[in-house]
Write a structure and sequence with these properties.
CATH superfamily of one domain: Alpha/Beta hydrolase fold, catalytic domain
Order of helices and strands: HEEEHHEHEHEHHHHHEHEH
Number of helices: 12
CATH topology of one domain: Rossmann fold
CATH architecture of one domain: 3-Layer(aba) Sandwich
Oligomer: single chain
Strand content: 15-25%
Distance between the termini: 37 Å
CATH class of one domain: Alpha Beta
């Protein structure tokens, strides 16, 4: 089972480095940092924000989420700063809230007043922060593979990942931390193989600064309680980050939660159930329902 999982990841990441994207590409400067993005489709705007050490291609295009949404929506997916085709600064202060502002500046660049925001993993934390800081720019928000990051949470894993990156050991602590409870931790050989694939397309110093900057994406209980934006949380049943969604439930106003049976952090966004739940939520909260066909 572990071997099949590794083979699947290898194929997935190799495809990420060789696939030719159908969408249109663009870029702009966001407070001095180049932000690369892709666009496809017509209709209400949907902005997709990917996870840590991934890219728009890996997180959204290859699993088919981008193309599925582009049938009915004007879909935009950015490469977060520090990732993909975007700029990769090495300063911690260039991340965190600046990544939230990148999303807003991209909407401004495209002359979009409001959009549906969809984020996964790190992108989910960015989306959650965006909802409480710029609610006027959000039609609806979907937080996938992420929950409530609180000030009193144990953030030791952040330092462990950053230290590992600084020492040239990639994101091994993250791989271990995302292993579902009760499941075998990846072997050293598996971790080495995955690291080689992931780090081949990433800048270790940029990722280190980025992960440290995530500590500045926390939200407060009061902010969640006062939320007026419709929010969907999609989380895998086996995802270790489900605890954050459980903590958010009953606190964040206007929150709906969908748990993907058997899903973990890596497989959930590739699951048909993820796309199904997302499509249903977007249809439910469309600004102009008559224009969204199914």
């Amino acid at each position: 089972m572990r071997q099949r999982s590794l083979c699947g990841l290898v194929i997935f990441l190799l495809a990420a480095s060789t696939a030719v994207a159908a969408p249109q590409h663009g870029s702009f400067l966001s407070n001095g940092v180049k932000i690369h993005y892709i666009v496809e489709g017509e209709g209400e705007p949907v902005l997709l924000i990917h996870g840590f050490s991934a890219s728009a291609m890996m997180n959204w295009v290859l699993p088919g989420v981008f193309a599925n949404l582009a049938k009915h929506y004007h879909v935009i997916a950015l490469d977060n700063r520090g990732h993909g085709g975007s700029g990769k600064p090495h300063e911690v202060e260039k991340y965190g809230p600046e990544m939230v502002e990148d999303a807003i500046r991209l909407l401004d660049h495209l002359k979009i007043d409001k959009a549906h925001i969809v984020g996964y993993s790190m992108g989910g934390f960015i989306t959650e922060k965006l909802v409480v800081t710029h609610p006027e720019r959000v039609i609806s928000a979907t937080v996938g593979g992420a929950g409530w990051s609180r000030e009193d949470d144990d953030h030791a894993i952040i330092d462990q990942i950053a230290k590992s990156l600084d020492e040239g050991n990639g994101i091994a602590p993250l791989m271990k931390a995302l292993t579902p409870p009760g499941h075998p931790v990846p072997s050293d050989e598996q971790i080495k193989a995955r690291n080689q694939l992931i780090m081949a397309n990433n800048d270790a110093k940029a990722l280190s600064a980025c992960i440290r900057g995530m500590l500045n994406l926390q939200t407060t209980k009061q902010q969640l309680e006062q939320n007026k934006v419709p929010v969907l949380a999609i989380i895998g049943e086996l995802d270790p980050l489900k605890k954050g969604v459980d903590n958010m439930t009953g606190v964040m106003a206007n929150l709906k939660v969908v748990v993907v049976p058997g899903g973990d952090h890596i497989t959930t966004f590739q699951s048909p159930k993820f796309t199904e739940a997302l499509n249903e939520f977007l249809t439910e909260h469309a600004r102009h329902p008559a224009t969204v066909g199914r």
